[in-house]
Amino acid sequence: MNVRVRSRFITALVATGMALPIWVTAASDSLHKTIHLGQTSTVAGKTLQEGDYDLMVSGNQAKFASKGKVVAEVPCTWKTLDAKAEHDLVLTSGGVVTEIEFQGKTQAIDF
Fold first, then answer.
1. Which helix (H) or strand (E) element contains residue 17?
2. In the structure, what pLDDT confidence band is assigned to residue 82 with cuts at 50, 70 and 90?
3. How far, in Å, CA of 40 to CA of 29, rounded?
4. Which of the listed residues 55, 65, 87, 103 has the most CB atoms within 10 Å of its CB?
């Protein structure tokens, strides 16, 4: 392998290695799940009726959709759990959604 080919190979390898953390971060802060609310609840001041919702999280923004229509778009923050969540879980306090955990993940979202 001549010096020029080896140099290009090493450059490509380093560039790929530097981009990998960006790809992992982008994948870890976006999510699409179906969740169920067992009672009428509020999230960041928006009222959500009891039922199933498509939850789409991108960065620090969560969208709740019902029957294909976005019914709430609210800010959220990611947090790291001590262990992987055993189930998808919507935590509420006094009818207010405070956190959503995702099965098999160590990350959850807070409101």
1. helix 3-28
2. very high
3. 27
4. 55
Q: Report the C-alpha gap between 57 and 55 in whole angstroms.
A: 6
Which position has the token pair 């609310």?
37
Show the tokens assigned to 1.
């392998």
- For residue 41 the two structure tokens come to 């609840």
- Give the residue among 78, 86, 85 at the shortest CA–CA distance from 111: 78
**Residue 64 predicted with pLDDT over 80:** yes
Look at phi and psi of residue 8 and say left if phi exceeds 0, alpha if psi is from -120 to 50, else beta: alpha
Cα dihedral across residues 36, 70, 66, 26: positive or negative: negative
Phi, psi dihedral angles at 26 (to 5 degrees): -65, -40
Tokens for 23?
């790809």
Closest CA to 91 of 101, 78, 80, 77: 101
Render 21-63 in DSSP notation, one character per residue: HHHHHHHHTEEEEEEEESS-EEETTEEE-SEEEEEEEETTEEE
**Annotated domain spans of the chain:** 30-110
